[in-house]
Request: fold
Amino acid sequence: MLLVALNLRAVVTSLGALLDEVRDGLGLSGVTAGLVTTLPTIAFAGLGALTPWLVRRVAPARVLVVAMLALAVGQVLRVATDSALIFVLTSALALSGIAVANILLPMLVKQHFPHRTGLVTGAYTMALTVGTTVAAASAVPIAHAFGSWRAGLGVWAAMAAVAVLPWVPLALRTRAGARRVTPTAVATPMRVRPARTRLGWAMAVYFGAQSLSGYAIMGWLAQLFRDAGYHPESAGLLLAGVTALGVPIALLMPTLAGRLGSLRPLVLGLTTASALAYLGLALAPHGAALLWVALLAIGQGAFPMILTAIGLRARTAEGTVALSAFAQSTGYVIAALGPLMVGILYEATGGWTAPIGFLLGALAVQTTAGMAIARPRYVEDE
Reply:
């Protein structure tokens, strides 16, 4: 699980750090670059919704093996082309693997560690954050060392290939075991439909709003710091700083969420940090960059919190995968607006005031939904 988690954002933040070079190399316009940075949310929404259907028909370990292979192959193919269209399509292939793994991990945690959900969620979220950080910090130096942005993006395919290896034996054992199970021995799982519940929709809106800001930050923060006068390597390091500072937050947040009777203090605290960071980036992006990076890191603690909440707001593994799929797939439809709107507003206005105003509006929506999911309840009960 930790090896898989290391791969779940590297493909995104490595592109964010090298977006300028990719735009020049492939001749992408600002709007097209916005579309490319929106691809993660589009893929996560579409493929995430299909994952419960897949795991009802194929063993989760086998699904995960195929997903990680798609991630590795997609990353290799996208750096081997000079076509913007093929770059987009192969990026989508890589992201489809992440989309499926996103949904599977909360279910696997609930299934294998039902009494340690917070601890294991914190561990894999921390691994995800480490992978995000390393990719953001090293993409530009790797590209410069090899003389091409293609190296800075393509190197992460090897990490995805390594993550496949421990799952192959499990997938093969699952396949062999499946042949010995008779149809009458298979219990039909309870069908949970989060789309018919208020909790499901509140979770989806919160997940979507926090992901909207998260992917906008991953896709465009390095560009904001470049525009503020930072060297490309420094801008990449500042982007990496958001995720690096998020490592202890990712480990701590699930434990806090699991112990608190209500999530309200966390929701309000994360909102305050994000709002201060956005205002700081609008008013003084260069003068106090480290402070805004630290506040952004705290605000992005909304991601591990909502992942933990998915497990806390469901009683069963079936309920968890249903809630995870609905919250993430619907949430990523909402999140798709983030990088795209930031790109459009940035190109239209030539500055960052309008994009940051948009992110502040999304933060207000996030806070409202967060208050709705704060009190303890279960999706199965609704």
Notes: The longest helix spans residues 117-146. The chain is about 80% helix and 0% strand.
